[in-house]
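User: Hey, my collaborator sent me this sequence without any context and asked if I could get a structure. I don't really work with proteins. Can you help?
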Amino acid sequence: MNTATKNADNGRGTLPVAKNFEPLLNSREAATLLRMHHKTLEKKARREQIPSYFYNGRWFFRQSELDGWLQSAVHCGGQSVRENWRNQ
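Assistant: No problem. I've predicted the 3D structure and written it out in structure-token form, which is a compact way to encode the shape of the chain:
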């Protein structure tokens, strides 16, 4: 077995699982991290303003991509997006 995988029990046997697999966040989980309403986040996703994935009628997000999006907003806007949250 590859060292990058480990076994996971799915109830029907074991499946190899990648160590570096990043689970997707749903819109409520991602919105909590970004401190915004989940409907606002979904609107940004529909407008392609934020990295997202639409699958089976639901929006999903990767935490690492959201962090990169925040970092790029910091470098483009002059003032930190995170600082704006604190000032509201």
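In plain terms: Helices lie at 27-34, 38-46, 63-77, 81-86. You can pass these tokens on to your collaborator as they are.
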